[in-house]
Amino acid sequence: MSAARNVLVTGGNRGIGLAIAQAFVEGGDTVVVTSRSGEAPQGLTAVTCDVTDTESVNAAFAAAEEIFGGPVQVLVANAGITKDGLLMRMSDEDFDAVIDTNLAGVFRCVRRASTGMIKARGGRIVLISSVVGLYGGPGQANYAASKAGLVGLARSVTRELGGRGITANVVAPGFIETDMTAALPEDTQKTYKAGIPAGRFAQPGEVAAVVRFLASEDAGYVTGAVIPVDGGLGMGH
User: Fold this and answer.
1) CB under 8 Å to 12, separation ≥6 — which residues?
2) Run of H or E including 6
3) I need a surface site. Which of 31, 64, 182, 216 has the fewest CB within 10 A?
């Protein structure tokens, strides 16, 4: 078994982020999650972070490093928001807010994480995108653009830092079994599932397993990749 690593999961207090954080804990790693409130789910340690604010991001990393007793070795950038709306009615504010959190927020975290990784000559960066980022989604111009932008970010980081033992990859989940999907009307769920070759939604743990692989030693030569976890919905697009 490899040595425990210092893992920071942004937005790791619920949903997919929580499943990812728990998977790393189960694998023996030391995990800190970020949340806006700074409240931690049971069994996890949290630091307060607003990814739209550089000072808040830097302070969160400093607090995590103090808990770890060293730098962040694995960053999973999962924090994100939606403000869906039809293109013609979408306000500048709703577009900007989603880009600022989902894309610029990830940039701020990656920039801060990279300083410790460069010094250590190694690290793992995993960005949580969405099938919508490459597949598109009606009423989601802001969200899809923000999630597509993560691909360009990861590939640019790979070109810059690949020679330093740092990998940067993107995971693109499809529909996941969460409280949000469970609340959808049964007919709507059936319609969505009919478009998924696997015929079902994913379990959060299935996304977490892929993230853990990308953060592992076994994935040392996988970088700049986009890994769909969508049951075939996007077919790699």
Assistant:
1) 18, 20, 21, 31, 33, 34, 35, 44, 46, 76, 78
2) strand 6-10
3) 182
Q: Which helix (H) or strand (E) holds 19?
A: helix 15-26
Domains: count for the chain: 1
Cα–Cα separations (whole angstroms), residue 197 to 85, 134, 192, 234, 235: 27, 17, 10, 10, 10
| Residue 228 bridge partners (DSSP) | 172
Catalytic residues: 143
Q: Which residues contact 27 (CB under 8 A, 6 or more apart)?
A: 212
List the one residue out of 125, 176, 140 whose CA is nearest residue 15: 176
Could you give the CA distance from residue 161 to residue 168 in angstroms, rounded to a whole number? Answer: 9
User: What are 170's two structure tokens?
Assistant: 């993107």
Q: CA–CA separation, 66 vs 6, rounded Å?
A: 11
Q: Residue 155 is part of which domain span? A: 6-223
Half-sphere exposure of 101 (CA within 13 A, CB side): 20
Residue 122 lies in a domain: yes
| pTM summary value | 0.96
Q: Give the CATH number, domain containing residue 182.
A: 3.40.50.720
Mean pLDDT, contiguous 10-residue spans, the chain (237 residues): 87 93 97 92 94 98 98 97 96 98 98 98 97 94 97 98 98 90 88 95 97 97 97 86
Between the alpha carbon of residue 83 and those of residues 63, 76, 111, 202, the distances in Å are: 30, 22, 25, 23
